[in-house]
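Exam review. A common question shows you a sequence with its structure tokens and asks you to describe the fold in words. Practice with the pair below. Do the first one on your own.
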Amino acid sequence: MVLKTSLFGSSASTRTVPLGKSLVQTVLVCIAYFVAARLGLAVPFTSGNVSPVWPAAGIALASVLLFGYRMWPGIALGAFLANLLSPIPHMAAAGLALGNTLAALAGAVMLRRLPRFETSLSRLIDVLQLIALGALVSPLVSATLGVATLFAAHVQAWQALPMAWVIYWLGDAMGVLLITPLLLTLSSIHAIRRERIAEVATLILLLALTCFVIFNDRLLGELKHDVLAFGVFPFVIWAATRFGINGSSFALLVIATIATLETALGSGPFAQSSPFQNSALLQVYLAVLAVSGLTLAAVVAEREQTEAERTKLIHDQAHQAVLLRDLSGRLLQMQDEERRRIARELHDSAGQTITAMGLNLSIAAASKNLSPEASKAIADTVALGEELSREIRTMSYLLHPPLLDEAGLESALQWYVSGFGERSKIKVSLQLPPRFPRLSSELEISIFRIVQEALTNIYRHSDSPTATVSIRSEGDVFRLCIEDAGKGMKVRSGLSSGSLNGTGVGLRGMQERVAQLGGTLQIQSSGTGTRIIAHFGISKAEHGSSTA
């Protein structure tokens, strides 16, 4: 058998819970509430069932927030039994139980109605909502019904209605502030790493000793200055910053337990006035500690969560950058392979076809039966075919020069620079180191394409009459430099490969090729020319067949 229960106060937010599990949870809540209520009634300040600290209120609100509204029978039964064992009428015990149950349900309803309230209290807004609605507003219900019930039953709590109402309200509020955050975040205690267990033990031990020193007159004599009570603040800050809401709540519970017992025994800085004043001052003191500790822990948790999200975002962006770089490298590789295929097709297919056409036209031109006009037309066609064959051969070599595979980068650059100078009328100086080695195929193709793209840009945009291409080896680093004496380009001086946004597609292609090989690319430009510098790290294994 199952029980369908609403956890969020609306029919749209329901959850099916096995009946047996629900009964077990209800019984456990009843027992926990009963024990906490009896402890609250055992506080020496208690008068007419009005306790200055009521931890059962925190258990009631936490149980409803965690398990749902079906916990109300356990809360009501536990409250009734706890008050029934006190020297008050049965009807008064029932009235107090009703007020305590309605307060927990009201607090849960208000918090659940809020948008995006999280019981993990991982955000500052969650803690502030719990303090405002759970600790300040919902106890108004129990305080009002409870005090009205006691006075109707002629139980003279605290001798006056206003005093009783204030103590009742503050007692329930303190129970919520001290117990509810601890229970809501109890599941996160496993997140404390083993290496921090010693720190937790040290914190608890030092905090307990400090509380006994501050609130026990036998250790400090008759020194009861109120300022001494705030000596526990460093420990609250320690717990909040290092162990979050859970650690802060536990530290506050330790402080509240020792401070309440010692003050009730007439020791400490809050034992100097009447019982009512001592109780009220102690409650305000504990409230200040609780609000400060919980909000600080929430701020720290929120900041850590933001930092974690930021770190994750940076990691995801770095991962995406790696994927994009890999994709870019693959695209460049596919582009080079496609260029090689097209070059081969142009050379082997189109080139051979044009050559065959020229041979056939030559045979036709040798015929003696042609008119002079026909002979001239055939001769012109043969000449056009030869020119087209040269253009196709040049295009094929520009797409992928066979010298790059056969003789290496040095021969390919010399061929390309020579042909580029003839076609563009730009005087290009090629400076290569003596005994230029063979490099890996990928590196040779990348360097050739960078030189090709750079010289093309010089021809199209710089209006420079000269250009220089130089390669030199600096240890295990190859330095490629292409420069001109043109009008420059609109980029920042010393632009690096990581900041080429807004530049042309050609420069971006250079950047991608250099980045794929783990190198760096720099652009230096002014009104007297532009210089492109690329550095490549060369390992011994990349020297290919340099000695072959």
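Now try the second one, then compare your answer with the model answer below.
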Amino acid sequence: MKLLEKSHIKIHPRAIEAMGANLVTNDNVAILELVKNSYDAFAYKVKVSFGVNNTSITILDDGLGMDKQTIENDWATISTTCKVNQKEVYRDGKTRIVSGNKGLGRLSASRLGNKLTLITKKRNQPIYQTTFVWNDFYEKLSTDECLFEIYELESDDDIKDCGTKLIIEGLNSEWDNAKLEDLKIELQRLLHPFKENDFKIIFNNENEPLNLFNFQDGGDEIEISPLINDPVYKIYGYVDKHQDVYYTYEEIENYNEVQSRKTTIKSDVITWEEIKEKCDSLLSDNLIYFDDVNCGPFDFEIRVWEMSNDYLSTISEKYGLKSRIIVRKVINNLKGISVYRDGVLVLPKSETSRDWLGLDKRRISQIGRRLSTTQIIGQINISLENNPKLIDTTSRESFVANEEYSNFYVICVAGIIEKLQKLRNNSKVEENKKVAVKDLFQNASPDRLRQAVEEAVKKNKSAAEVQKVVNEYSDNLEKNLEELKERVEYFAQLASAGTFSKLIIHEIKNATNPILRFNKSVFSTFKPLPERIKRDYDLSEASCKRLLDLSDAFSPLSRVTFKKEKHSCNLFSEVNNVGLLMESVLSDNKITLKNEVDPEITIGLHPGEIQTILINLIDNAIYWVNKRNYNIKIIRIYNKSINDREIAVNVSDTGTGVDEILGEKIFAPGVTGKLHGFGMGLVVANEIIASHGGYFKNIQPGELDNGATFEFSVPKEKK
């Protein structure tokens, strides 16, 4: 091998376009990148102005400014390391962590317009000006030919002590009112929503007509409404170096009665082990974590509002707003969860990435009441020091999908968000006493509105009073429709589960019968069987029989005529059958199931119904008995008499017991204390008992060492 020569890597000037105009995903992100450069220059104030007829964009700040050497060696050097080497800037005895580190942010200007004029001044230094015409650069053959001239100015109208001004002309896009409003919203998100900001953003649109209020203005300061400090629910805390979540949850009771409000507070820990368990249970969410990496500590705060009209009216009245629409708009402008690194927005940078955690998708696809981005404002604070592996993609629209980001993501979704949703749902149940579905339809009937309006007309009420009647009906209608939507979504899931169970029962029978036929053939051909094979044969026969018994018990539940049929079963036998069905899991967990039911009692339920109830209760009991570090592991089932028509069945365990906060809420859809539970089992069990006219209740304290005790009534067999 012979060395011929050493050569250079060359960069064509069109690479400037690729790293600027083509890499930045949209115009708003481009402006945000330039505003963040002002923050990195320790500006206290930056002003974004759009010239008359949208001929130019000017970004003016009062930051530290640049001298001639900085323009040449840093600003005009693509992907410079200046911010990597100097991660902090200092001014007036204060320190700021710089937000940029790729050295590409200023190239965003090339996306906005063809011509960029830079005017800058460092304290006690001259004012310098230079101009870049991007299309001229792109036509050159190499970057060595991309020359720019630096001028020294005597003065500038806008820069006195120090600062930088960017004037972008030859704009590549039209900026109509809608696009400008979107930009204002994105600029608002740059500001930290829950902390004091020492960085002000001014927005000035010179196309707005002058009036009495703005003829002397230099623009409007981008501000955050104080109503975001008035959520219904709030969770905040931190994630430590072990990836455990320490949180505090706050909820305002009687929110709509402002004078009677009361705040309840709960603090607890979600361990990394619990988060991993949750990830494993949410298989459809594809939540991937890595045990051998750590995303680093961070803190968080998420605020939640209810978006029904009664809540929105309370807020609009409290803050003197004209309508509920304004409240929705304020929350919508900052909706979702934002990530800030050292106080500067990292994610999201545009509307398309607002739901980077996939909350809206999960709200549709999973059982239970989930949060939507439209009702939450949240912030997560990371830092360059603690979270060095949480890296922005070059497009600035997401994080690099590495292992540290995977852990960060699952902590947010399976840890913080899941806990917030569960606590909120538990609180909502008591507030919303469940109305029968038929009553929801009745409440939505237009007859009520017609009667109310006719009554108002008969009494010669004014148009304003009639309008009030209509508004009240509209509010109630919206509330009923929202409740109806939740019910339909939930019971649609149950219906899907029912359809799926039919398929499972069918497949069990199809798959089991050939095994039984094969067993019979083996036995008749090779009998007597050797002892070892005989044990396997008996085990196979017993397992198949249990599967068939299970399918026989549940298959009648899917018949259309089931409810019209008369059913009965021996309660003692069915408790034993469930014990056999769950024998392996009880044995694995060293839990004793005590059947203390009267062997003579026959109840008026189908075996599949009572088994469904008992399986749900025993499955819950197994979970909570294991959660308690207690050497006595017992589940006890017994009955007691109510009257000559019905009996009560009690299921008690030595587990942790039901949280007092939950109480009877535990029977509502979506409410569960389990880390990976859906809040479905007790709802189904309660529905079965209710269909027979019985009751289902949670007894506190529990009867076995303060564990859980559930009691339900069932009818005796009708003679």
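Model answer, second protein: The chain has four domains: 14-209+218-223, 228-431, 446-554, 566-715. The chain is about 40% helix and 20% strand. Full marks require stating both points clearly.
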